[in-house]
Amino acid sequence: MSLDSQWRDFLLNEELDERSIFTYIQGLQEIISNLKPRTVSEKRRLQLAKQHIREVRKYARRIMNENMDLQEKLQLLEESKGDE
Predict the structure, then answer these.
(1) pLDDT in tens, 56-72
(2) Number of domains the chain is built from
(3) Which domain holds residue 18?
(4) Which label site among 56, 58, 80, 84 has the fewest CB atoms less than 10 Å from its CB?
């Protein structure tokens, strides 16, 4: 089974409501962890891909937190505007 078909299967099997950036990250992590490197260079590439996935997850968390903060600020602004 190719990486492409695994990824398509993963995306098709997920329900639309449950998809988030973290779902995609987890799917990529599972696919990468199932790959078996045959050469040293492939092993290094997989290690680099795993590191990139960790960084993406970190940045996604940061963006989600910033988004929640901005939504709270917007709600406060809308409430204060409504009081005037």
Answers:
(1) 999 999 999 999 999 99
(2) 1
(3) 3-83
(4) 84
